[in-house]
Amino acid sequence: IKIKVTEIPIPVAFSSTYEGEIIRRGDMQVEFDGSRVDCFELVCTKEASEIEDHEFKLIGPDFDQMEVGSKQQIAYIVNVAGKNMQSDFEPVFERKFHSYLNCIEGVMHTGQRDMIRIRISKATFEAGFRAKDLAEVLYCNIMNEFDAVVDKCSVTIITDGVECTRLRHELAIPTYDRRDERLESLTDESVPVYYSCIMCQAFSPSHVCVVTPERLGLCGAVSWLDAKATNQLDPEGPCQVITKERVIDERLGRYEDVDEAVAKFSQGALEHVTLYSIMEDPMTSCGCFECICGIEPFSNGVIIANREYAGMTPLGMTFPDLASMTGGGVQTPGFMGHGKHFISSKKFMKAEGGIERIVWMPKDLKDQVSERLNKTAKELYGIDNFCDMVGDETIATDPETLLAFLTEKGHPALGMDPMM
Ligand code: SF4
Ligand code: ZN
Fold this sequence. Notes:
binds zinc ion, 420 residues, globular, binds iron/sulfur cluster, alpha/beta, Bifunctional carbon monoxide dehydrogenase/acetyl-coa synthase(codh/acs), Chain M, domain 5
């Protein structure tokens, strides 16, 4: 018999009202910062015999043995077992940790995987909040939310620096890499179905993401494997199967099945959506795109701006300017929200010629995607070091300077057909 825990036995409140809570440096008891030191969060699937349900282990000092205001290391491993558990569910559970921890009064969590950052407030610490309470929150929520597949769960928290570092390298990173490789081996052609996602309809009522192996959700957080897992965990939930049997146009990624699904899930607001075009019936955008791609008429190309970029783009628009004309679940040909990972996809605006059209990106974004983007450019077009031809804000923030740079580099977009 599975018992649903409704009250989580911790010394502070647990509620979604704490989700946006900010903890300032002066109010914080301790901070864990995965961008500076080795930290991580991980779900591991185990055999039932390997787990003692509700067991909690702490390796290293508890919060009361940490200096006030200090930066520390933390890792937490949530072990789960269940007859219906699959390792493909692990990242779906892991992504929920963000909201679980943020629901704790006086706890702030950002990031995921080994780039997490957590702050615990002085008030919450003084109320008695310790490592075992953090474990309790993870345990109770996993058991509540995923009881269809999890029969047993145990949590290990590691605050010992040496152990955090060792386990990050020996356990966490290889696990993340394995997941990424699994996704990378899939193509849109190789899978039998796609998935819809309507998680954003709460604030963007007609928005539907169509998630394929080579095109993740525009938030960057829902891959095809995640959508598949979400569908299996909750068949009536936000991610539904979209068949792909009735192709209308391969080049555009136009399918009767996709159009039908989009019409249904947008309650008729959308009739046609293509998977691979930015000009013809592009996918809509809600508000949580990681990046926006927009047409740059002087070079026949497109620029991409990421959310973190605060400066100007050669279109004379900042990211917020671009966002205001791209979001809201409407189709705006020439502009499209997308995930960072999509930039190096062979399906990135394939209908208009693909990644060869990219003429400008903020430097920071370029650095993040260059390895993969260069690899795709080499595979698709035989171009070496493609990113060296792509402008950034240190080179140009106006179209004339950008065009001069692209001409000097011999950027392939200049020789392509105009996009409009
Ligand atoms: Fe789902 Fe992400 Fe698309 Fe929102 S943006 S509908 S969460 S895939
Ligand atoms: Zn969204």
